[in-house]
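@channel sequence for tomorrow's demo:
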Amino acid sequence: MNNFEDRRSILNSLMAGMLLPQTIFSANAEEINTLATITDRVLVDVRISRQDGTFYVRDDLDDSPENRVFYGQLQLGLFGELAPQNVKQFLSYVDTNFNPLEDNPRPSYARSTFVSFDEGTGLLLGGYIPSLQVTDFGGSAALKYGGRILPAPLWNDGTQTIQIRHTTKGLLTHRTLDVAPTFGITTQSAPDLDGTHNVFGQVMLDDSSLAFLDIVKGIPTYSLQRPRGDSQTERPLDTVASAVFKSQRELFRSAAKTFGDTRLNKIYPGKLLRRVEVTQVKHL
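structure tokens (generated this afternoon):
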């Protein structure tokens, strides 16, 4: 059976699974430990830049929240029995040793970013690996990274019949038919994600992870509804808001050129206007 037939078989299984009765559990904080067994734990070191995108030590700025660099750690618990294929794919980007000195390294979450926050669902989108792209190879989806063409299996193979609803913060979730390694972290109940996303783990909500999620939720995001002055005169508040928007846009375009990241140069709704980066991952 070729890759195309493999993929079609999996998609047919997924569609059939959507039509079959599924056992769907809620995931309140009190219940989650009884719904799924944590089979693997992963530590993720994260950092959040100042509003100007910098991390280095500075003594020329006021000591305000937007001028502070945040360093923290997320501990993730993965549900390997409940969602084995999701966890397998997730760990494939954790267990890869990232060495920036290699000529042709493999993609790793150790060099990834959190890129957007959806205010409607409260979903924080992470796992974006710069320069990793979904492409077509021989009629099937594949991943292109540097000089490599890598297989792109689905994260849900259609055999999972037990689902957890997105009813609490801190759940790790992945879009069902997406082959990219991007994943989401819920920051609130998000029932709109049921049916399109699959929960495969959770963030252990300790002081560090709670502080991280609180800061991310407060980071300004790009919106198509940005302030505009009227045709006659701009109100002072609109003028200031427009100036801030323009400076943030230029900051990110400059960062895109610096890091060679084509996606950073794109503007899209929900884009975080501070850099939120992963610096290290470790499978315990």
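heads up for whoever presents: The CA atoms of residues 248 and 272 lie 10 Å apart.
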